[in-house]
Amino acid sequence: MQFKSQAVAKPYFIAAIGLFLGQILFGLIMGLQYVIGDFLFPAIPFNVARMVHTNLLIVWLLFGFMGAAYYLIPEEAERELHSPKLAIAMFWVFLVAGALTIVGYLAVPYATLAQMTGNDLLETMGREFLEQPLPTKVGIVIVALAMLYNLSMTILRGRKTSINLVMIIGLWGLALFFLFSFYNPANLVKDKYFWWWVVHMWVEGVWELILGSMLAFVLIKVTGVDREIIEKWLYVIIAMALISGIIGTGHHYFWIGAPAYWQWWGSVFSALEPVPFFMMTVFAFNMVNRRRRIHPNKAAVLWALGTGVMAFLGAGVWGFLHTLAPVNFFTHGTQITAAHGHMAFYGAYAMVVMTMISYAMPMLRGRPANSERSQVVEMWAFWLMTVSMVFITLFLTAAGILQVWLQRVSSTPMPFMAAQDQVALFYWMREVAGVFFLIGLLLYIASFFIKGKLPAHTSDTLATGKQRAVAEA
Amino acid sequence: MLPHKQLQTSFLRITTKESELNMSSAFTKSTARNIFYGGAVFFFLLFLALTFDTVSTLPKRDNSANMTESVVRGKHIWETRNCIGCHTLLGEGAYFAPELGNVYARRGPEFIKAWIKMQPTGAPGRRQMPNFHLNDKELDDITAFLKYTGEIDTNKWPPNIEG
Fold it and tell me: pTM score, two decimals?
């Protein structure tokens, strides 16, 4: 850590990990409800658990992005953050607003919550991922604007690198596209059309800028590869992301009432969406192979490589699997979608936040890297969570293929619930994989509390690093 | 110099050479940056143009001619009961409960209303839907909304009546 004000990132990262744990617990509840339908009913109906699961995901990723921005922008700009106090104040506003929202979901019926929070003034609630009450949505805008002011001022008065420019463009984009969450016309087709301007433009658009910037920052730090090379890669990757991803929005417009030509636009451009993710994998491995220093934080290097691979598999491969219109005609709105959603969010966004945390948290705690013991546990957590997520995805994919066959392809199509009964075995296996994921996450959290002898030197050689890892294990 | 320091220095020298070879010098960072800015702006403008065309041709497909006040009220009920948290509507939402975009065609209005009223079934181990205590007018509204949704031109999706 080079600047004192980077310390504001710490509470953001801690909150992110805490909310991540909440997200996984509610995921396990939902997974069980898939097979034991009345589990926790009526205390926590499925729709409430799902709202908590997905909203916690969004909020913890936002905490992670903000923490990352507060950490890397001062360092890139080579000056203190414009206002550390504002950043801390916004942390508390966001945390309290987030917590109250979750309590609201769990404590009162959704219709009551809508009434209490002024949904009749401006109807924005009850749409997937945008379920937040109006005051929460307004709160998100305020927190985002305060952050953008704070970070933009820091960059304006400091060094402008490609990494902090891409980061700030990504964050501005995030805030601007969120404004479409306030647009909810009575016309369902228009509602759905512009709903994607938040959801798709986030995850397959501006978030990729944030992801690229975070990954590039960590790769510069842990590999020591020349900045010019890394930033060139960054621009090529995000260029491909937006060139494919903007028109790629069309893959959501096949069956919601939009004109049929979207089947062509959407299929062709979203077929290119794996390209930037593949480049990200090549990028991460290339930079690590060409590294000019051996950073003592091996866990952070592992997370960075993992992000490249898993983002490509989850977002790229599993996205491509069902993105062509003739395929999507059969798979739209099935467990195939769920499979893709899980691996893509984990592989791209959850993992890049953990990459950043893995690199920055030891610095924030006054050391270049954690002890070998701590890192070994963290790397175990990496493998447990990542392998579990691969299995969750495979089981959901199997369930989805069967579901499509039984319900949509077969000459005697089954009703939805009858088909669900047929694939229950895969839901059970998914739940088991989910338990392993939770164990991985608990290990991850535990790794922060494991002490031990700190690594000696930033520029250790590869050989001694390996020997020590072997000796420790 | 310590042996491992020497090793490291030679390692450094090799990687420097390699990185010079990394990408051809003709393709510079500023070329990449220009492709990013140019590509992003061009394709966003193209997207806006397509959106403009979509929105202007939408009335032919979106069944807005039949968007009565009851339908609008029905959408409000749909949203404030968070139906999307379990069901899909035109394939979007959660995958826990049946597709409702074509439920009007599949089940008809009387079944829909009776079904909503009799929830939860309480069948042990089965997935449960809450009772939302909708009155008759609200039941008519949500049914009207589902009828309107079913008449949107979705390019013949879903593949069959089971959704």
Answer: 0.93
